[in-house]
């Protein structure tokens, strides 16, 4: 599930870490493949989240990105790599999303670019999110012969059902204002950094215990969905990825042509 394209592996870290007055800032920094959820990026993100979870000086995590894309979803160039599939395939993606949801620190997303497919699940797993005017969103799976299976667990409990139905089925692109209206993001803002200031200021005032227990209350329903549905949805996703239709859809995408079913 991706809009990512093939890319050479960069030498530097794909997840950059910084700290700003109680906020650990994690920056997805693989712009050449549109911050796709490659095996390496997922591994680095797990490490950074674990470090933030154990940091006594961290009250919240800010997840942001370089380049014009927040996250394009899974890396199609690794689709046939068994080792990569273990990290970033359906079960690997479910594990990453659950890690964010269960993290005892609030996770805030700052989005100023495009979000597609599995990147939407990453966004949905965050507790709060601010999207700027350059952000766009689309559930592209149905156009590739796939379905937004695993990412539904953090998204469907939070999104307007009618909006989810429309955008899951049509694959239409929509903007930050619509993302906020549907519940996909917390707010749309012309200046995301200014909009984040009061949010981060509030989180800095929270006690570690108070933040962790308050987050547990608002994520309980989402975690119940993970407990109930992870195995079945991961199986669905794996089955679809292995299908002839999905192979045609992904090949057509990489070749920049319409798939055979488009008339």
UniProtKB/TrEMBL annotation:
Gene Ontology molecular-function annotations: enoyl-CoA hydratase activity
InterPro entries attached to this UniProt entry: ClpP/crotonase-like_dom_sf (IPR029045), Enoyl-CoA_hydra/iso (IPR001753), Enoyl-CoA_hydra_C (IPR014748), Enoyl-CoA_Hydratase/Isomerase (IPR051683)
Gene3D superfamilies, sorted: 2-enoyl-CoA Hydratase, Chain A, domain 1 (3.90.226.10), Lyase 2-enoyl-coa Hydratase, Chain A, domain 2 (1.10.12.10)
Top class in the EC scheme: lyase
Keywords for this protein: Lyase
EC numbers: 4.2.1.17
Pfam families linked: ECH_1
Family from the record: Belongs to the enoyl-CoA hydratase/isomerase family.
This protein's name: Enoyl-CoA hydratase
């Amino acid at each position: 599930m991706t809009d990512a394209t093939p890319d050479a592996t960069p030498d530097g870290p794909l997840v950059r870490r910084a700290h700003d007055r109680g906020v650990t800032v994690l920056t997805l920094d693989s712009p050449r493949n549109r911050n796709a959820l490659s095996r390496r990026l997922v591994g680095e993100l797990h490490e950074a989240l674990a470090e933030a979870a154990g940091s006594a000086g961290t009250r919240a995590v800010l997840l942001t990105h370089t380049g014009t894309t927040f996250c394009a979803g899974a890396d199609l160039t690794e689709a046939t790599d068994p080792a990569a599939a273990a990290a970033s395939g359906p079960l690997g993606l479910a594990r990453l999303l659950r890690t964010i949801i269960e993290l005892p620190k609030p996770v805030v997303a700052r989005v100023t670019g495009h979000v597609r497919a599995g990147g939407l699940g990453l966004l949905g797993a965050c507790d709060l999110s601010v999207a700027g005017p350059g952000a766009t969103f689309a559930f592209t799976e149905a156009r590739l012969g796939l379905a937004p299976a695993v990412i539904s667990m953090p998204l469907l409990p939070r999104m307007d059902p009618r909006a989810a139905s429309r955008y899951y089925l049509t694959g239409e692109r929509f903007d930050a204002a619509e993302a906020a209206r549907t519940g996909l993001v917390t707010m749309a803002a012309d200046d995301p950094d200014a909009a984040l200031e009061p949010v981060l200021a509030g989180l800095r005032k929270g006690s570690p215990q108070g933040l962790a227990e308050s987050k547990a209350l608002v994520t309980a329903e989402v975690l119940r969905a993970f407990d109930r549905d992870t195995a079945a949805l991961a199986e669905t996703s794996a089955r679809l990825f292995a299908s002839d239709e999905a192979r045609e859809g992904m090949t057509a995408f990489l070749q920049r042509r319409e798939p055979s079913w488009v008339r």
